[in-house]
Design brief:
With 501 residues, this protein is of the alpha/beta class. It folds into two domains: 310 residues, TIM Barrel, CATH 3.20.20.80; 125 residues, Trefoil (Trefoil (Acidic Fibroblast Growth Factor, subunit A)), CATH 2.80.10.50. It contains twelve helices and 22 strands. It has an eight-stranded parallel barrel with strand order 3-4-5-6-7-8-9-10, surrounded by four helices.
Length: 501
């Protein structure tokens, strides 16, 4: 049975059709469906490997301005490189432009179906999720609801069984930010949700996709994102397999304020940023900010499948390096921006000493139960021995010599060994750079990276390439002197070799 609709497209060659029928969906190495996870006390979107969704975008809808970009289907090698060389696990696709507006799309719905069929299969084979949305012809706030529903009645069933495909209802369907949306705009989201859900009962649906949250911090009934989320829920949207997509065209503080509001309860939806200006990777450190909130992101870059957008001097990779954003890739062969495998996480219940490169000292627990980095060597008998406990996928907990777990309370407070149990604040995400240096993220307390500062250990960093954010663990069963400085990061960091394309 074909993985696609039995409807045929005129330009679909017999060879392609037979290939689709003969191969079938069982031959695809597709990702499992993403999940909504509430273990942190709020909802986040995780992949089948318990990782955030991270990707770049591609335009089949004509580009911005409309008509400026032809449809370019990336080769399999290019898509493989997104996972293997750039550490990504998703691709965001503007598939077809809405018919709204004087310069709207005049093509029949489905004119890009053949290209999309190819992309769906290639993303599956590359181990990538594919997020499909409707473009707005380069003009914010243009949507023809009836046309959009017909779009989803065509494409919704087509990929409903593809577990790596996600549907985003419409790109920027109403003018400007959440502040400007009317009740009718929200009702249109409900209509799109109902159309997509009927066509694809098990597919993750992303709603809203507004330019930004601007105005959300005023907390009135029209701008508080929690009220808007509740409105959608009361109209029948089920947040167990749906989420809010948002864009980052506003101040960093505005984005963080709104995200923080929606993190106050599991009754509010998970979030995914599906567009922001690439300059804000370094300008406002958006990627690092989203990482700290466990909020996945799609970089608005690579729209024409031009690899210079990835590997050039102003490309995606260089921007991420400049910002020092780090994460563990999904692809086991990838070592950028951190190593996927093999990881050197100590075994459960093993003992270690922890060396802070930033302070050039080993860490111990002082008389106030705070962690301080002030030992020139490790002995194991100066309150400097820690027991590693594995707490989940690339998550660890640290039990200090006083028998209590290391806990993170806030960005301004040093880590302390004060907890008798392990909760979210006692979990740290292990990120291992290609040179062996270890970066630790305060998983359940602020989400920032640990750093050593003036001998204290603070959970307030975002640059994983800074020496202050890097640590080294030694065998806790024997004394140790200072380890050597980490070597320079190898060529995958310094170059962007993406193989033959």
């Amino acid at each position: 049975m074909s993985v696609f609709s039995s409807k045929t497209i005129g330009s679909f060659s017999l060879a392609c059709l037979l290939g689709t029928i003969l191969l079938g969906s069982t031959t695809w190495a597709a990702r499992g469906r993403p999940q909504i996870d509430a273990s942190l006390g709020y909802n986040i979107i995780l992949s089948d490997k318990q990782t955030l969704l991270r990707g770049v975008s591609i335009s089949f809808d004509g580009g911005d301005p409309y008509g400026s970009l032809p449809v370019v289907v990336p080769t399999q090698s290019q898509l493989n490189a997104l996972a293997k060389n750039y550490g990504l696990n998703a691709l965001h696709l503007y598939l077809e432009g809405d018919s709204a507006g004087a310069e709207g799309n005049n093509n029949s719905i489905g004119y890009n179906a053949v290209a999309c069929d190819t992309l769906v299969q290639r993303c599956a084979d590359a181990g990538l999720y594919l997020i499909i949305t409707i473009g707005c012809n380069g003009k914010n706030g243009q949507m023809n609801l009836e046309w959009s529903q017909r779009f989803w009645n065509f494409y919704g069933p087509r990929y409903k069984d593809q577990t790596h495909v996600i549907y985003e209802a419409h790109n920027e369907p109403a003018p400007n930010t959440l502040w400007n949306w009317t009740t009718n705009d929200w009702n249109n989201q409900v209509a799109l949700y109902n159309t997509i859900r009927a066509a694809a009962p098990n597919t993750l649906i992303l709603l809203c996709s507004f330019m930004g949250f601007a105005g959300a911090n005023d907390l009135n009934s029209s701008s508080d994102p929690r009220n808007r989320a509740n409105y959608l829920k009361n109209q029948g949207v089920n947040w167990s397999n749906a989420a809010i997509a948002h864009h980052g065209y506003e101040s960093k503080i505005g984005v963080e304020t709104a995200i923080s509001l929606l993190k106050t309860s599991t009754t509010y939806p998970a979030l995914l940023c599906t567009e922001f200006w690439p300059g804000d990777t370094t300008g406002q450190e958006y990627n690092s900010m989203y990482e700290s909130h466990h909020n996945g992101w799609m970089q608005f870059q690579w729209l024409g499948a031009n690899d210079n957008d990835l590997s050039g001097t102003d490309g995606f990779k260089q921007k991420i390096i400049n910002a020092g954003t780090v994460w563990t890739p999904d692809d086991p062969d990838c070592s950028w921006p951190a190593r996927a495998t093999p990881l050197t996480i100590p075994t459960h219940n093993s003992t270690v000493g922890i060396y802070a490169y930033g302070s050039a000292r080993f860490i111990r627990v002082n008389s106030s139960e705070d962690l301080v980095a002030n030992l020139t060597s490790y002995s194991g008998n100066q309150n400097d021995k820690f027991t590693i406990e594995r707490s989940g996928m690339n998550l660890i907990s640290l039990k200090a010599s006083n028998g209590l777990y290391v806990s993170s309370s806030s960005q301004t407070d040093s880590l302390s060994a004060v907890s008798s149990t392990v909760g979210a604040r006692e979990k740290f995400q292990w990120i291992e750079l290609a040179n062996g240096a270890v970066v630790l993220r305060a998983y359940g307390s602020g989400g920032h990276l640990l750093r050593s500062a003036n001998g204290t250990i603070l959970p307030d960093a975002d640059n994983g390439l800074a020496t202050a954010s890097q640590f080294f663990l030694v065998d806790g069963s024997v004394p140790s002197g200072q380890p050597p400085l980490p070597t320079s990061l190898p060529s995958p960091w310094q170059t962007a070799d993406i193989g033959t394309v």
